[in-house]
Amino acid sequence: MSNFLFNGLLGKADPKSQFAMIPSDSGIRTYSYQDVFDVSARLANTLVDLGVEPGDRVAVQVPKSIEAIMLYLAAIRAGAVFLPLNTGYTVSEVEYFLNNASPSIFICDPSKKDDFVPLAQKLDIRLETLGVWTNHEESAGTIADLGLEASTEFENVERRASDLGAILYTSGTTGRSKGAMLTHDNLLSNAATLVDYWGFSKDDVLLHALPIFHTHGLFVATNTTLMSGSSLIFLGGFSNDAVIEHLPNSTVLMGVPTFYTRLLNDPRFDKALVNHMRLFISGSAPLLAETHIEFEELTRHKILERYGMTETNMSTSNPYKGERRAGTVGFPLPGVNIRIVDSESGQILPTGEIGILEVEGPNVFSGYWQMPEKTKEEFRDDGFFITGDLATTDEDGYIQIVGRSKDLIISGGYNIYPKELELLLDEQDGVLESAVIGVPHPDFGEGVVAILIAKPDFDLSEDVIMTSIQNDIAKFKQPKKIILLDELPRNTMGKVQKNVLRDNYKDLLKS
Ligand code: MLC
Ligand code: AMP
Fold first, then answer.
1. Which of 20, 86, 98, 289 is the most exposed place for a label (fewest CB within 10 A)?
2. CATH tag, 409-504
3. Is 83 left (phi over 0), alpha (psi -120 to 50) or beta?
4. Nearest-CA residue for atom 5 of ligand 2
5. Does residue 283 line the site of ligand 1, with CB under 6 A?
6. Residue 313, ligand 2, Cβ within 6 A
7. What would the pLDDT profile of 332-373 be if each residue is shown by its tens digit?
8. Which residue CA neighbors atom 3 of ligand 1 most closely?
């Protein structure tokens, strides 16, 4: 039967071609496209046997593995909605997502199963596990074990373009995360556009070092590979050692800016290592023009910067063939409409002025899961999505992202909404109020700093606060530094002046 996304991604795949090479401490495994069909069918059968029905959410928080990618494809084949969660989220953060999305199954890391049993019982959600497969003698979790016994034949559940394929949660300015609903067409149309725009062919080998619970590593990197019939070198995560070891056998690297700044700081990373490379792509956070220039000076490669968002997939890109301009995110992708408007009036602004970037096209999501009001607020009546990013265009039409109207910190490509951390800090013993800001960080671009005001007669300490929040919020969202002040700077309206705080502490994390 026709399954819009699965057929679109794999309809032309050559079963004999290699899909992935997976290096690990226990050796190298390979996956052919035939394995992709077989393993995703086994896991789809397993999901169905466990009671997953079309439209059900399949929530997963599992370590990065090629089987986790197969689980994504299996959920799609079974007509379900894939819901990946950041592996850094704590049990209490996961509780919110499971409560909100009410999946029929939650698949976690085998080593964390005990932590989740009470939660799964409380919410009445089936709990299964999937780990990294390192050794055929050992279990890689219940889903993998069941999959081994399941058939490699699976009749895909019919899904149309407008059916939901995935929900990815993005934090919100109010502190509440929202589930972005992505349709089969959102994902497939964007993959098709990127394959074409970036010149992917079956000869490409993409070095995959990104996490696979976000748009970048899951959809941009993986869907383009599948759709072009190319292959992956699939790393468990980013490290200079692994990337430098595998670059010689790769043709494309996709990364967040931190990948590039880390590589530039490594004396082993030089022109000879990457002479053969076809393409370096950066996104998810601003790539400093100086990083772009330094990279070009060292390697003669111009990093191709693109811009996207969970809600919109990829919206703009520097050209593959034309000039890639440092400090810009290029042009709207084919089929994507972009406009820059005045935030108050919604009027389109003349070239060169700074306004809010709005997007419309087949790439744009269909709304926030069970939040019709929030969805309405973030769309214009004519269907344009209000990104909250501040942008301008130069005289040649290159778009520059110059800031954000939303109170958001992007650290190493991960989004952190200050409100979420402020709400948690305000609950801590002795805290009167807090303000959370992002300041320049040499490795992550921006780093989180929390400014706290103590209640009268309370002595706050950075250590005590850090210890008391550690089980409630993912490590990457925790402050890199806490500052204790007597009061927060406020304007005449009483609003906290975060710009003053950002300026006062701009050098705090620099070294
Ligand atoms: C790790 N830490 C971070 C962090 N990553 N802190 C803040 N921000 C981050 N991004 C914490 C660790 O827990 C650790 O804490 C300390 O910082 C040092 O960690 P590390 O070992 O140096 O980090 P590492 O594991 O190497 O990870 C860094 C990274 C990773 C950059 C490789 O963060 C990463 O893979 N980022 C990619 C994110 C991504 O894929 N974003 C796409 C979103 S989609 P301690 O105290 O234990 O030492 C999207 C749409 C689009 O945005 O357009 O693409
Ligand atoms: P997320 O919600 O995790 O998908 O993050 C999306 C946000 O990342 C966007 O709204 C932008 O603020 C930011 N972003 C993505 N790509 C870029 C880029 N190339 N330059 C600047 N910001 C970017």
1. 289
2. 3.30.300.30
3. beta
4. 309
5. yes
6. no
7. 999 999 999 998 899 999 999 999 999 999 999 999 999 999
8. 476
Ligand 1: centre distance to CA 473 (Å): 14
Please indicate, yes or no, whether the overall pTM of this predicted structure exceeds 0.85: yes
For atom 9 of ligand 2, the residue with the nearest CA is: 309
Nearest CA to ligand 1 atom 15: 475
Are 482 and 452 contacting, i.e. CB atoms less than 8 angstroms apart?
A: yes
Say which residues have a Cβ less than 8 Å from residue 252's Cβ, sequence separation at least 6. 198, 200, 204, 205, 206, 207, 277, 278, 279, 280, 281
Q: Is the CB of 387 under 6 A from ligand 2?
A: yes
CATH 3.40.50.980 in the chain, residues?
A: 4-18+33-182
Q: For residue range 391-409, what is the model confidence (pLDDT) as tens digits?
A: 999 999 999 999 999 889 9
Rounded CA gap, 209 and 18, in Å?
Answer: 18
Report which protein residue has its CA nearest ligand 1's atom 11.
476
For 157-212, write each residue's pLDDT tens digit.
999 999 999 999 998 777 789 999 999 999 999 999 999 999 999 999 999 999 99
Task: Indicate whether residue 401 lines ligand 2 (CB < 6 A).
Answer: yes
Are 510 and 440 within 8 A, CB to CB? yes
What ligand 1 atom has the least distance to the C-alpha of 447? 7
Bridge partner list, 452: 434, 484
CATH of 4-18+33-182, one of 2.60.40.1930, 3.40.190.10, 3.40.50.980, 2.60.40.10: 3.40.50.980
